[in-house]
Amino acid sequence: MDWWAWTEWYTTQYQDPAVQVTNFPVATGNTVSFLVCAPEPDHGFVSMQNLATNQVTSVGFNARPGITSAGASAEWIIEGISADLPDFLPVTFSDCTAGTQDHSFNLADGVITNIQGSAGALTQAYIASPTAAVVQWEGWS
């Protein structure tokens, strides 16, 4: 099974694919930390740390010409590249906060979306606290 970190500046207009971060290996059981920023309306920046291996990297990426960030939302995502996901242990997104220069927000007003597969819901997700969300694979017992 391959695990990898990725970035993307996704828009419904272009639906650009994810770009693998090749100098940041991750494996089952690793705890990782991410800082995601849009220091300019058309430029994103991600700092990544693998707490298990103590590896750190950062990636900057530009939006397509004419596309800018409204700064109106943030997402914490588990995603597969097929219609179904492999088995995984529960994943906790902790210390989830986002903001602008003038405002910060957390998951208190968030929305949870479960991942759908070919046979129905693959995950059960919930907000555990204003700054933590848990995603559990439905087949896990």
Structure notes:
The chain has 141 residues and is mainly beta. The protein has 2 domains: 29-69, no CATH class; 82-141, no CATH class. It is 0% helix and 43% strand. The chain contains no helices and 12 strands. It has strands at residues 4-7, 19-25, 32-40, 43-50, 55-62, 91-93, 98-99, 104-105, 116-117, 120-121, 123-129, 132-137. Strands 3-4-5 form a 3-stranded antiparallel sheet, with no helix packed on it. Strands 6-12-11 form a 3-stranded antiparallel sheet, with no helix packed on it. It is globular and about 40 Å long. The model has no long low-confidence stretch (mean pLDDT 84).
Low-confidence stretches: none
Q: Residue share in helices?
A: under 10%
Q: Which class best fits the helix and strand makeup? A: mainly beta
Residues in β-strands, percent: 35-45%
The succession of helices and strands, N to C, reads EEEEEEEEEEEE
Give the overall shape.
globular
Strand order of the largest sheet: 3-4-5
Largest sheet: 3 strands, antiparallel
**Average pLDDT:** 84
What is the total domain count? 2
Number of helices: 0
Distance between the termini: 21 Å
Rg, Cα atoms, Å: 16 Å
Task: Tell me the total number of β-strands.
Answer: 12
